[in-house]
Amino acid sequence: MSVLDRNNVQIAGQGERAMVFAHGFGCDQNMWRQVAPAFEADFRTIVFDHVGAGGSDLSAYDSARYSSLQTYADDLVALCRELGLRQAIFVGHSVSAMIGILAAATDPALFSELILVGPSPRYIDDGAYKGGFSAADIEELLESLADNHLGWSAMMAPVIMGNPDRPELGEELTNSFCRTDPEIARDFARVVFTTDNRDDLAKVTARTLILQCSDDAIAPTHVGEYVRDCIAGSEMVILDATGHCPNLSAPREVIAAIRAFV
């Protein structure tokens, strides 16, 4: 199976330059449905599913192989090379922000701009660095997910989404989490929440924009500021949006911030 089929790559739009959108944990390319089409008039837009998510080829998933974010980054590099992309714009939500950074380090010619939505290089506190969670918090979260995938999804998705006054958003994220294979979700969660990508931030050479929600329980503002301070020349925009998924809760604001940057 080709990498384009394996990762369920979908291409739309027109233009000489490409814009690649990558989704976060427990999600799939559908999470960009309100953002990516806004750029089709000027860019070739590319959405895809990480192996194990959405319409990807689940038979390609192997827990040992996908025990590192670098493998997901290698997939991203492979699909970009298959499409002949150079100097594209990468838009990565949540964990895909770090996956994009790793891909850019692997092949610096792929992306001229990185747009990181709600990035966190490390979720676990470490001395002066405050990622937002203790090691015990993360271990409890992972054990809860392993014990009761559906219950964990119903509990955590609304917290991640925020916007309690719009329960339909939390319900959509819950449903997305619940569609994920429980074993894959468990494995990917451990990779996501225990990885430390802080040292990778200094390697970024592409123009970088950080989109930070004003109130995000998963990636707090000080984490976004840390990413900004570690990536030379990067810019940070604090959105009025709240929660961790502004691509769903505030797509117009996300679109406007991306347009202003590119």
Question: What portion of the residues fall into strands of 2 or more residues?
Answer: 15-25%
Helix/strand/pairing class, anyone?
Answer: alpha/beta
**Architecture (CATH level 2) name:** 3-Layer(aba) Sandwich
Strand order of the largest sheet: 1-3-2-4-5-6-7
Spell out the helices and strands N to C: HEEEHEHEHHHHEHEHH
Structure description:
The structure is a single chain. α2 (69-82) crosses α3 (95-106) and α4 (135-147) packs across α5. This protein has one domain: Rossmann fold. β6 (207-215), α8 and β7 (235-242) form a beta-alpha-beta unit. With 262 residues, the chain is α/β, with parallel strands linked by helices. It is globular and about 45 Å long. The chain contains 10 helices and 7 strands.
Key structural traits:
262 residues, alpha/beta, seven-stranded mixed beta sheet, single chain, Rossmann fold
Summarize the structure.
The chain has 262 residues and is an alpha/beta fold.
Task: Please outline the helices and strands.
Layout: H1 3-6, E1 10-13, E2 18-22, E3 44-47, H2 69-82, E4 88-93, H3 95-106, E5 111-117, H4 135-147, H5 149-161, H6 167-179, H7 182-194, E6 207-215, H8 221-230, E7 235-242, H9 246-249, H10 251-261
Parallel strand pairs: 2-3, 2-4, 4-5, 5-6, 6-7
Antiparallel strand pairs: 1-3
